[in-house]
Amino acid sequence: MQLPNSIFLRDSCSFSFYGGILPAKFVDSVGAVYYNKVYFGLAETLFIQGGSALKRAAQQALSSLIFGGAFELVKAIVGANWGDEGKGKITDLFASESDIVIRFQGGANAGHTIINDYGRFALHLLPSGVCYQHTMNIIGNGVALDIPKLIAEIKSVTDKGVPAPHIMVSDRAQVMMPYHVLLDTYEEERLAEQKFGSTKSGIAPFYSDKYAKIGFQVNELFDEAYLKEKLARVLEVKNLLLEHVYHKPLLDLEEIFATLLTYRDMVAPYVGDVNAYLHEALKAGKNILLEGQLGSLKDPDFGIYPMVTSSSTLAGYGAVGAGIPPYEIKEIVAVTKAYSSAVGAGEFVSEIFGEEARLMRDHGGDKGEYGATTGRPMGWFDCVATRYGCRVQGATQVVLTALDCLSYLDEIKVCTGYEIDGVVTRDFPVTTKLRKAKPVLQTLPGFKTDIRGIGRFEDLPRAAQDYVAFIEREIGVPITMVSNGPKRSEILKRK
User: Fold this and answer.
1) Does the global pTM surpass 0.70?
2) Pick from 459, 461, 418, 466: which is nearest to 444 by CA?
3) What's the pLDDT at 213?
4) Looking at the domain that runs over 334-493, which CATH code has it been given?
5) Considering only CA atoms, which of 208, 249, 256, 202 is closest in space to residue 233?
6) What is the CATH number of domain 174-268?
7) Which end of the chain, N or C, is more open, meaning fewer C-beta atoms within 10 Å of its C-beta?
């Protein structure tokens, strides 16, 4: 019998995939669109109830059956650890297949480093898809929007020859105010030895104001009368704080109001209704990439509280911070390094010190392990923390970065458990217990050879392959890709 080369669809029916080639474009009775994909020897039947779910379900099935999930409609890329896991490179990689890349939380307090044909970029606010002309780069409503830094960052990208990127800023995003950085700095001064290790980017005061409902959304910049009246009310509170707690100069209404009008003019060309845009993009079947900042252990709910950031670093928050339905997120890629490093202060059980840490820091990254914003504490790979980090993210796959940075070692240690009050646990504890934890280390053979330039995972030294397999077994999530260098091309897919 001749098998059909198409999908037969009705508003409520079953449909089947058969070996062959789909038509270049097929539109069913409820408007679902399917594009040309090649597949062989597949037969699958799926029941779909109701026309409204038809398109999403079919796209999922196509992705799963034909490409093993590589073409999910919405994918999130997040960190599994303390931040600085190499997400920028991985986001840049996936952005080449994405129509839209969205920053959904955080601000200019941390950076993503990407290296491509245009050069090396340390991005802080811009999504990592800015080097692709086919990609819309979105600053979501969950981002702490530092407008002058955003504009400066756009200029820094175009100055290196990158064509003007497509950028949209949510009209619901909130603005980093001039006094947020001041208050962040003053509070760290006040805390002295008890400080949180802030980057002094204004993040904590920003999110405090947001949830105290005294923040300013981008759209408010365009209503001058309302803006000035609200600003006057807010500054009354801020000046009381400056006068009586920090003993610092007071804020001037007219000066800050003039600054905000300057911010308005800077950002005006990029402002749009992101929620409406994404609604239409989902209906049109666009590939969307959610880009997270920092990692699981810096989440204010599930991280090493209080040494955390002030916005959720989890993929689950991506739906809120971008403005899409949570069920649209089909794939969650957790990124972790082949060793450990941390952004900011806080509990770090596998941390190493002295000469051992210096050597690892000097061999890390493409310019040493110093990050895009701050320096980094160093440590061995932490299976306990990473397993937990993948769990709270809901990771469906893991990308292991910076394997090449371990090539100088004769032996590689891995943290497989924590000893707390004489008892060994494999579960990541709350911070009060974490402070007492000591690492349980296992030693594995090093591969002691430069692995940059190797194009297939199977061609890595056996010890390097075994190291990856050991980590995969420990964390319980498939490692689908391994990075063996800082360049975008230096990534190995595992079979």
Assistant:
1) yes
2) 466
3) 95
4) 3.90.170.10
5) 256
6) 1.10.300.10
7) N
